[in-house]
């Protein structure tokens, strides 16, 4: 199974293009080692990532875009088989692509910025409830909170004193920003998601 994320930038026409550089560098980073990603129609994108890294990677993409406030991002996660692999993602097909498109198309109706779809409806129901709860925090990330989440995810083994040195902030301001972002809870969600997706893929 593979994971395809389809997304677009919310309100991109009303804001400066600073989000584009952030998006490109984020897509390059999270798509390694496959480097399978595309930006199309100006503000839409598609990326192939490892299924078990879906939550951590969409959180990273979200943080990278939220730095460019008031920009935000909507994403549909699809996990499934790939039928035809081509050089360009947009020319490939299979369940993962279909599910990603369906998850993305459901966002406006559900009035959320993130959703997942697989062939396992019970799994989808559970994870989508978790995502809705996580979005209460993620959709309200300010610039500093988003910066600290981005930095923490880029330096996953770093302690807060090291993040403070990298960012040039005090340890207390780093701690406060990550607390405000509900970073530890999102990491707990990622851990639970990985456990569930690995059980699913082992079937």
Q: State mean pLDDT (0 to 100 scale).
A: 93
Number of helices: 8
E-strand count: 5
What is the straight-line distance between the termini? 12 Å
CATH class: Alpha Beta
CATH H-level superfamily title: Reverse transcriptase/Diguanylate cyclase domain
Q: What is the global morphology?
A: globular
Question: Could you name the ranges where pLDDT drops below 50 across 5 or more consecutive residues?
Answer: none
- Reading the helices and strands in chain order gives EHEEHEHEHHHHH
The CATH topology assignment is: Alpha-Beta Plaits
- What is the annotated CATH architecture? 2-Layer Sandwich
What percentage of the residues does DSSP assign to strands (E)?
15-25%
Provide the gyration radius in Å: 16 Å
- The SS-based structural class is alpha+beta
Protein name: Transcriptional regulator
Pfam families: SatD (PF16264)
Account of the 3D structure:
The chain is an alpha+beta fold. It has a single domain (2-202), classed as Alpha-Beta Plaits (2-Layer Sandwich), CATH 3.30.70. Helices cover 54% and strands 16% of the residues. It contains 8 helices and 5 strands. Strand 2 (37-40) and strand 3 (44-49) form a beta hairpin. The longest helix is centred in the C-terminal third of the chain and has 20 residues, at 183-202. This is Transcriptional regulator. InterPro entries: SatD (IPR032580). It comes from Pedobacter changchengzhani.
Which key phrases capture this entry?
alpha+beta, Alpha-Beta Plaits, 203 residues, 8 helices, 5-stranded mixed sheet, globular
Please render the helix and strand layout as text:
Elements: E1 2-10, H1 18-30, E2 37-40, E3 44-49, H2 54-66, E4 72-80, H3 95-110, E5 114-117, H4 121-138, H5 143-154, H6 160-167, H7 171-180, H8 183-202
Parallel strand pairs: 4-5
Antiparallel strand pairs: 1-3, 1-4, 2-3
Pfam families: SatD
Protein name: Transcriptional regulator
InterPro entries: SatD
